[in-house]
From TrEMBL:
UniProt organism field: Streptomyces fagopyri
GO cellular component terms given for this protein: cytoplasm
Designated name of the protein: AAA family ATPase
Coiled-coil intervals: none
PROSITE patterns according to UniProt: HTH_LUXR_1
Domain HTH luxR-type as annotated: residue spans: 918-945
Length: 962
């Protein structure tokens, strides 16, 4: 029904069940019993979705929802999608949230939004976007989640109403679709109305949302003949006879909007509502919509028609002055036109105009002749800019104009793209720039537009980005700096698309043409970086020598030099040079600063420098750097691939330190982020490989196997050298499953790939350690030789963890008294390292060998130590192994002791209790009303304070697992 009708009548016909659902949801939201009395029930949110075709009464129903919500003291957030505003990024999000935040002074707004200010502020139109890299879409959604969650909690109970969701912009719709399931855990009722047959392709997740959230969309049905009769008599009086009412129902098919408009036409014509006049209803009904509506509009005069066209072009929330400017009318003429359109029930409102119904707006817009419509959009764009509303507001109109080589149009579209890109809407920026390219831009600006278009497509369409950037390089570029930026971006997207050879070749070719020595050095540093990841690099040793010579000459005076020095530190780690050399270069790289979120730089080198410390047995330093780096990512709003890398590799650091439960929580958080980025991407490979390796360490071979199958983890492996190396992890999995021949073949293949490249540090690439174990079944002598070569390489590197791990592998494949000697030396080295899990393995292995050698007292000491260490690490499989060995020695395994938990905060204890009861991280997040990253941090603190893993929390906290 139209808004005018909504205001004048409250009656809703045949919507009793829908209103009952609303009342029930509002009662649960406000914590009231069904009888209206206050009760102990916890306020609970919900999702209600009302679906139906145009005119079926969704808008009227949602207006009643807003009225009843306000009457119950609820805070109401309201928005409406617009057919003309679908391409305006965050249009719906701004309608919802801006009114509740826009009145704040800047200082107050900064204090309210905290670290999210610079991330969500531009998207919501609350502040200008800052220079630098924009937030990724996951980060922006996380920020919007935070804002809406805090509003819901602070201003509870809250009702969010979204009408015409099928016309909502993609950015807002995808955000709300992802957020909606959380409504049930908040004091928030989310009510949505939409036309199911008009939901766009980008709303597929929204289409299935009600079922996933535990509700089904309520399909609104047409009114029955009896309901239409009551509606007619309410408007026209009791004298409306049965035949007249039946004909009203027949010609409107029970559509509420058409029935209301029909009664208005009857009243305007002075028609007596009896059977005698019923034959006129069909013609009157035709005038309500389509061609009949347009004919009625045209009878109002040329100026009024033009004003209506201008309003249709502008869409929703129409400024009368702006509509007059677009229509080319004076203020008085425009006011008369607005009065005429209000009288004809086409427009409603005063200070802000609206069409009485979206059906009317659509009919008027589609009736505008094509050429006139294009001209009006062009005029609207000019008027919007002239009113100071900015390029982003004008862009949607420019998108409807015909290409004409207009420089002004190109300028405005590029400016709009910059605004939307920095606000976190790269898809909208890409559309604007693609349209600017068709204008076309001036010849000398074409390369710049192609570069900007490539940057806008970087995260969503990497293949398209490559095409745009290569096209830019083929253009005559007069600005050398622009060419350099194109090259850097092109090499980056090629590398991230697993096309490392092309990235390296591009940089090599361009560096030869660079006249500036500093530019050439930057390109060389980028090439060194991508070559370090290439599995198919033709001559890695030669590249290492060049890198060594270059790094030794540099002082680290700028970021490029520090990147080169950082790459030298990583190269020394891979090659197994003495650890102190790698650490020396790592410290040099950090001396002048090495941020993780530098403009126009990747985060790879800072991560490699941080990992250098980890492999050299200084994981505390690594975690310091990761904490700062992840904070950089979060402050930039990077919650996609960047944050996934951060969490995944931090999980690997925890794994290396033997904190397996924390490692699993971190890697699962990283994997959830990686899944949003997409399967087959490097970040996804990292996460899956790390998860499989952690599960194997925890003794959960079956789960590791299922994980590998679920994510198709196996050959063919990425062209990039990853850490942990995916092929080596896959070989470990085969070995753990008892497939020794297959494991040996896979691990030997990894060795043939890595060894010629000079990658010989068994701390980083332990392929020899696992290969020796696999070979021991069929070729024991070769297995010993393989393991001893790994020991020699580990001794050259010098990190105690590397030596201890290699010695344990050598002991496993050796025989006789050598096994005990090797294991004793392994324990000695590992006790001086942070590798707690490796130490636990070595202690249990040594205890087992001592038991078999008839030395029970020594065996017991090492087995008990190994058991305690395994429990602390969360290595469940190793715990069982140690207990079995103790039982075989006739010893009673120690019971898990209860640990001190008084230092836990209330929220940490809550997270720990829920985890002990089997809740997953995302379920804990929902119950505590926090995001998953916060859950990871809470559990990390718990494991650190309690000193046990998930399996030990039940005993430590004294909770039920029910």
């Amino acid at each position: 029904m139209g808004q005018r009708s909504v205001r004048s009548r409250r009656t809703l016909f045949e919507r009793e069940s829908e209103l009952a659902s609303v009342e029930e949801a509002l009662s649960e939201l406000t914590g009231l019993r069904k009888d209206g009395s206050e009760g102990p029930e916890r306020p609970r949110g919900a999702l209600l979705a009302f679906a139906g075709r145009a005119g079926i009464g969704k808008t009227t129903l949602l207006a009643e929802v807003r009225r009843r919500s306000a009457a119950k003291g609820c805070t109401v957030l309201s928005a409406r999608g617009g057919e003309q505003e679908q391409g305006v990024a965050f249009h719906v999000a701004r309608q919802l949230l801006q009114p509740h935040l826009a009145g704040f002074a800047e200082a107050e707004l900064r204090a309210s939004l905290g670290s999210w200010y610079a991330i969500v502020g531009p998207a919501l139109g609350l502040c200008a976007a800052s220079e630098g890299a924009p937030p990724d879409q996951q980060g922006l959604r996380a920020g919007l989640d935070w804002v809406l969650t805090h509003l819901a909690v602070q201003r509870a109970p809250m009702v969010l109403v979204l009408d015409d969701a099928h016309w909502a912009d993609p950015e807002s719709l995808s955000w709300l679709a992802a957020f909606a399931p959380r409504a049930e855990e908040l004091p928030l009722l989310l009510v949505v109305g939409y036309r199911p047959d008009e939901l766009p392709d980008h709303a597929e997740s929204f289409r299935v949302l009600p079922g996933r959230a535990g509700q089904r969309p309520v399909d609104l049905e047409p009114l029955s003949a009896a309901a239409v009769a009551r509606l007619v008599r309410e408007d026209l009086g009791a004298q409306a006879d049965d035949a007249f009412c039946r004909e009203c129902w027949a010609v409107t098919a029970g559509n509420p909007f058409e029935a209301v408009e029909l009664t208005a036409k009857v009243r305007d014509r002075g028609l007596v509502p009896t059977e005698a006049g019923a034959h006129l209803l069909r013609d009157l009904a035709a005038a309500v919509k389509g061609s009949g509506l347009i004919a009625r509009l045209e009878r109002l005069g040329t100026s009024t028609v033009r004003f209506a066209w201008a309003c249709a072009v502008l869409g929703t929330e129409i400024s009368p002055a702006l509509a007059a400017a677009v229509a080319g009318l004076g203020s008085e003429e425009a006011a008369d036109a607005a009065d005429a359109l209000r009288g004809a029930r086409i427009l409603t409102g005063a200070d802000t105009l609206e069409f009485v119904h979206p059906l009317v707006a659509t009919a008027v817009y589609r009736a505008i002749p094509g050429g006139v419509r294009v001209a009006l959009h062009g005029q609207a764009a000019w008027c919007v800019i002239n009113e100071g509303l900015g390029p982003s507001a004008a862009a949607r109109h420019l998108m409807e104009s015909h290409p004409d080589g207009d420089v002004w149009v190109v300028q405005q579209l590029r400016a709009a793209a910059r605004e939307t890109q920095r606000a976190g809407a790269p898809d909208a920026a890409r559309r604007y720039l693609a349209r600017a390219l068709r204008e076309p831009p001036p010849f000398e600006e074409r390369a710049a537009v192609l570069y900007e278009l490539g940057c806008a497509s970087l995260l969503t369409e990497p293949a398209t980005t490559v095409n745009h950037l290569r096209a830019a390089l083929e253009e005559p570029i007069t600005d050398p700096e622009l060419r350099h930026h194109v090259v850097y971006r092109l090499s980056q997207v090629l590398a991230h698309s697993d096309r490392l050879a092309e990235a390296s070749e591009t940089l090599a070719r361009e560096s030869r043409m660079a006249a500036d020595a500093r530019v050439r050095l930057r390109m060389q540093s980028e090439q060194f970086m991508w070559d370090a990841f290439r599995a198919d690099e033709p001559d890695s040793p030669a590249r290492s020598r060049r890198l060594t010579r270059l790094a030794d000459r540099l002082t680290g005076r700028d970021l490029t030099e520090r990147y080169v020095i950082g790459l030298r530190a990583w190269d020394a780690t891979l090659r197994g040079e003495p650890a102190h050399i790698a650490l020396e270069h790592a410290e040099r790289a950090l001396a002048g600063g090495l941020g993780w979120a530098e403009a126009d730089r990747g985060f790879e080198v800072p991560i490699l420098v941080a990992l250098t410390f980890m492999y050299a047995d200084r994981p505390g330093r690594t975690e310091e750097l990761f904490a700062a780096g992840i904070a950089d990512f979060e402050s930039q709003g990077w919650h996609g691939a960047h944050l996934s890398f951060g969490y995944t590799i931090l999980a690997y650091v925890r794994y290396r330190r033997g904190r397996l439960a924390e490692a699993e929580d971190f890697v699962r958080a990283g994997l959830r982020l990686a899944e949003r980025v997409g399967p087959g991407t490097p970040v996804h490979w990292y996460a899956v490989a790390t998860l499989v390796e952690i599960l194997l360490a925890r003794g959960r071979v079956d789960e590791a196997t299922r994980t590998a199958e679920e994510y198709a983890f196996g050959a063919p492996f990425p062209a990039a050298v990853t850490f942990p190396d995916a092929q080596i992890v896959y070989g470990q999995l085969l070995l753990a499953r008892g497939l020794t021949k297959e494991a040996a073949a896979e691990l030997a293949s990894a060795g043939r790939r890595l060894d010629p490249r000079g990658i010989r540090n068994p701390s980083w690439c332990p392929w020899q350690l696992h290969l020796a174990r696999a070979e021991s079944h069929d070729a024991p002598e070769r297995a010993v030789a393989t393991a001893l070569e790994a020991v020699q390489r580990a001794r050259q590197y010098g990190a105690p963890s590397a030596i201890g791990q290699a010695l344990r592998a050598a002991a496993e494949v050796s025989s006789g008294s050598n096994r005990v000697k090797l294991l004793e030396e392994s324990v000695s080295h590992l006790e001086r390292s942070p590798a707690a899990y490796e130490l636990a393995c070595a202690l249990v292995a040594l205890g087992t060998e001592l038991r078999r050698s008839g030395r029970p007292k020594e065996a017991a000491e090492h087995l008990y130590r190994g058991l305690d260490a395994a429990v602390q690490c969360g290595a469940d499989g190793l715990v069982e192994e140690a207990r079995d060995e103790l039982a075989a020695a006739g010893l009673r395994p120690r019971r898990l002791h209860s640990t001190e938990t008084d230092t836990l905060t209330a929220r940490e204890r809550a997270a720990a209790v829920l985890t002990a009861r089997g809740r997953t991280a995302d379920q804990v997040a929902e119950e505590l009303h926090v995001d998953e990253q916060s859950v990871v941090r809470l559990l990390s603190a718990v494991y650190r304070k309690v000193g046990t893993d998930r399996s030990g929390l039940v005993a430590a906290l004294g909770v039920s697992t029910g």
